[in-house]
């Protein structure tokens, strides 16, 4: 009887570990022309049901993401001072989003949806991509019209939102 109970407990623990869906902190960093950038966020699973409820004006916290810049940058002609920013995505529609950097020092609530004091990045939304089952943020070099610039990307489901930063 004890052996059966032990097997049942071990099976239960293993099953819970296999079924558990951990959310963990992830950091992506890079250095471009002396400007160090650090992007931190929490991983979350993608949800079709949640996205179906999105309306214009909805603000996505992007995994409670923050971006730290050690030097000044620009996006779409707007100056972005060195500092720490909350990274948020605001829906224009379910398939059209705008990335916004909100100065962390000006944010009343770091998990809130107030982006009124934020800087809208030059943004492109890509759709119809292979499905990303988890939220993934990244920094990478631009290409084509964004060659020589830095891209901040937020991928979820079949969508990727890319914000352009000119650094240096």
Give the topology, please:
Layout lengths: L1 H18 L5 E8 L2 E8 L5 H5 L6 E2 L5 E4 L3 E3 L2 E3 L2 E11 L2 E8 L15 E2 L1 E5 L5 E10 L8 E8 L1 E9 L1
Antiparallel strand pairs: 1-2, 2-4, 3-7, 4-7, 5-6, 5-13, 7-8, 8-9, 10-13, 11-12, 12-13
Kindly estimate the percentage of residues that lie in beta strands according to DSSP: over 45%
Query: Helices and strands, in N-to-C order?
Result: HEEHEEEEEEEEEEE
Task: Tell me the number of strands.
Answer: 13
Distance between the termini: 70 Å
Q: Number of helix segments?
A: 2
Shape: globular
Cα-atom radius of gyration:
19 Å
The biggest sheet, with number of strands, parallel, antiparallel or mixed sense and barrel status, is:
7 strands, antiparallel
Helix content: 10-25%
Low-pLDDT runs of 5+ residues are 13-19
| Mean pLDDT across all amino acids | 86
Q: Tell me the domain tally.
A: 1
Structural class: mainly beta
């Amino acid at each position: 009887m004890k052996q059966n109970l032990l097997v049942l407990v071990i099976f239960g623990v293993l099953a819970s570990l296999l079924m558990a869906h951990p959310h963990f902190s992830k950091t992506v960093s890079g250095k471009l022309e002396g400007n160090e950038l650090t992007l931190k966020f929490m991983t979350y699973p993608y949800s079709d049901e949640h996205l179906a409820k999105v309306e214009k004006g909805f603000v996505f916290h992007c995994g409670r993401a923050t971006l730290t810049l050690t030097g000044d940058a620009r996006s779409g002609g707007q100056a972005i001072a060195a500092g720490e920013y909350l990274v948020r995505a605001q829906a224009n529609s379910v398939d059209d989003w705008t990335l916004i950097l909100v100065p962390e020092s000006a944010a009343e609530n770091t998990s809130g949806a107030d982006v009124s004091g934020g800087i809208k990045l030059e943004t492109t939304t890509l759709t119809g991509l292979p499905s990303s089952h988890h939220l993934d943020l990244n920094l990478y070099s631009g290409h084509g019209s964004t060659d020589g610039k830095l891209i901040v990307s937020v991928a979820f489901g079949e969508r990727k939102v890319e914000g352009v930063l000119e650094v240096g």
